[in-house]
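For the sake of transparency, this paper describes our internal protein records without simplification. Such a record has a labelled line for the sequence and another for the backbone structure tokens. Nothing more is needed to write down the fold, since each code stands for a local backbone conformation. For reference, a complete record is included directly beneath this paragraph.
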Amino acid sequence: MSRGYADSGWYKEALHGRMDKAVSTGVPSSRIFRWAGARAKLPGAGRKEMFRRKKEETMKPGKGTAIVLAALAAVSLPGCGARHSLKEVFYLVGSNMSLNYWQTAVAGFKKAAGEYQVTAKVAGPDNYDPQAELTELKNAVAAKPAGILVSVSDASVLTPEINAAIDAGIPVITIDSDAAGSRRLFFIGTNNLEAGRLGGQRVVEKLGGKGNVVFFTIAGQPNTEERLKGFKDVFTSRPGISIVDVVDIKGDASAAFDRTQQLLALAGAKKIDAFVCLDSASGKMVADAVKRTGDTSREVVAWDVNPDTLNGIKEGTIDATIVQKPFTMGYFGLKALDEIYHDQPAQFGKDYSADAFAPYPAFIDTGTSLVDKSNVDVYLAAAAAHAQ
């Protein structure tokens, strides 16, 4: 071997299989390749890398080929407009839309729309008003959108229009509150019966199996009715627990505050030991009323993770809250609608509840958990991160 090779930087690197460094010395790879073929003294790994590089150099596409490949890649990439369009419009229709709970659901809905590059529209009254929600649902159906998510404030009011949408070929999925008797495709949300049972177990634990309980709810709304049933299921085996009243606040959280103040006057055997809020808004109101008395012997169980509710748990005015995932409902709901819109079943509108080979589930559970002082900081941190 000539001393020139031995002293060459590329040779020393190539000899040890460090082909990247050999080529980086500036010596043409063709020269290194010829040397490797002639000498065949590189280690096995080095020879393989040398031949791979030579092959890549001979197969590099020209400028025109590169442009074609880039165009094909753009067409095949998701989110680049091949499948989706802003002309595809999806609706989220609900009631009480001014609540923090629904603002969170809307955020998830719009995030999914942004990822898919489709249009998201939100409709519904700011307060609890099933008739106003029905009007908004009718307007959405008339617009012939790609799909509709709807939270059912009153099944008897909204079911006919849900069915009308299905008849018109518009995919409809219920979220948060279901209309199980309608022909909606399926429900995405909380297993409210199990959520109620989770809350019931908490109340039994805190009261030691005996005491008077008052509920605040929105009567007739499917999700709150199921939650109440879950609590009652648990209390059935606890004869020491008595349900004194179930207060229908009709979507007005201030009504919960006023009624709590009245109930706090009861004493002795009639004393209310626990207040349970089955809706998202009344927890803070009830906690504020109890706090004013200075009586720390009463338990308050709330619903959802509104900032006021989490802060109430942190400071001790609320014992616990049952957590849902409205962001997930909105986010996953739009993506599910999109999938159905682009790949509708042969028998759209069929009742799949009795079909063992149904293309859709009857129910997608987004999850439930209980938050108290032991884990409230985790939820506060998550809320703060989301706000950013």
Q: What stands out?
A: Residues 261 and 292 are 9 Å apart (CA to CA). The longest strand covers residues 241-248.
